[in-house]
Amino acid sequence: MLLFVLWNRLKISYFRTKFLRIKEGFYSNNKVLSNEKFLIDLSNLRNEHFGDQLFFIFSIIRLSNFKNFIFKVDSKWKDLYELFNLRTSEQSFKSFDSNEVSLVTTFRSFVDLKDKNYFREIIIFDSMDKEISNPFCEEIFNFFSKEKNVSFHDTLSLKFDGLKVSNKLEEILKSEFYIFNDTIYSRSFIRPFLIRSLFKVLESNFYLPKRIIQVGSKDDLYKNSFKFPIDTFFDLRGKISLKELFFVLSHENCKGYIGFDNAIMHIALFFKKKAFVKFRGRFSKQNRDFHYKCVNCAVGEYAKSNIEYIK
To answer: Which helix or strand (DSSP H or E) is residue 268 part of?
Structure first.
C-alpha cells in the first residue's frame, strides 16, 4: 500500500510539470479555457473516495449552469448523484465530443486514466495545493461560476421525494439524536489510539438524554467495542441506504455528528449540524493547518464554527 501511494505521488509530480497552473488548486493543458460543458470524472474508486465525490457535488449544485456538468461515476455512487438531480454517465470517454466537452478530474485519478489525451481541454483540481486559501467547495464553485448574482452561500434545500422511510426508522427519529461513526479507511493503523479519545467523550454521556444512532456499513459491525446505554442507542450499520443517511442527517431532530473527520462529517456540516470530531491529523504542521483551513471545513467557511475538535 505504501509503495502504491509513493508511486502515485511520483506520477502526480510528473504530470504537474506537464500542465499550466491557471489558479490556486487548478491546472490545465490550455491557458485560456473556452468550453462551457464539462465531464467530471471521479470514477476511479481506488483513488477517489466518498469525500471527493461530495466536494464536487456540493460545489456544482450551487451553480446556475449545473446542467452543463456530467459526472462520470462508478455505479456505486449513482444514487448519490440522482439525489442531487445531477447528470451522470457510465459511458466511455470517446462517446463525448472531445472538442466541446472539457474533462475535469483530480491528479489522483488522472494518473491512472486511459485515453488521457482524448480531450482537447483538460482541467485538473489539485487538492494538495497548499496555496488554496478557501474551503474546497468554495474554491471549486468560484472556479466554475460564471454569474456574479449566484453566491456559494445561497441556501440550498434538498428534497427526498419518493424516499420510503420504514416505520422503525421514523420511530427512532422522533426523539433528538446524534449520529455516531467510528470508521477509518486511511491511517487505520492508528485507529486503536484515536478511538480511545473518541470513546472517552462518549463515556462522559454528554449527549444524554439524546439518542445515539450509529451508522456505517455491514463490514463495520464487529469493529466497535464501546457500550452505549441500551435505551438510547440504535445501531443502523448496514441497515440504511445512502439516501436515508442524507435524510437522517438533514432531519430536524439530528443535533450533530460524533466521530472522525470523514465523509459523514462533511454531510453533517453541509446540513449545518454540529460536529464533534476526532481529527486523524497529519504528519506535518503545514498539512494539519491546511486541513483545518480548507479540508475539514470543505463545505464552506461557516463549517469552521460548527466543528468542535476532540482532544
So the answer is: helix 263-270
Report the amino acid identity of residue 220: D
User: Cα 173 to chain center, whole Å?
Assistant: 24
**Which residues are bridge partners to 27 per DSSP?**
21, 124
87 shares its domain with 187: no
Helix boundaries (H) for 206-295 = 242-250, 263-270, 285-290
Single-letter amino acid code for the residue at 226 = F
Q: How far apart are CA 43 and CA 113, in angstroms?
A: 10
Number of domains in the chain: 2
pLDDT digits (tens, 9 = 90+) for 86-98: 999 988 999 999 9
pLDDT over 70 (residue 84): yes
The parent domain of residue 50 ranges over: 2-144
Least confident of 106-110, 226-230, 306-310: 226-230
Instruction: Tell me how far apart the alpha carbons of residues 189 and 199 are, in angstroms, rounded to a whole number.
Output: 17
pLDDT at 224: 61
27 and 91 co-located in one domain: yes
Distance CA 290, CA 25 (A): 13
Query: In the predicted model, is pLDDT for residue 2 greater than 60?
Result: no
In this structure, are residues 73 and 104 in contact, taking their beta carbons and an 8 Å threshold? no
Beta bridge partners of 122: 103
* Statement to judge: residues 137 and 176 lie in one domain: no
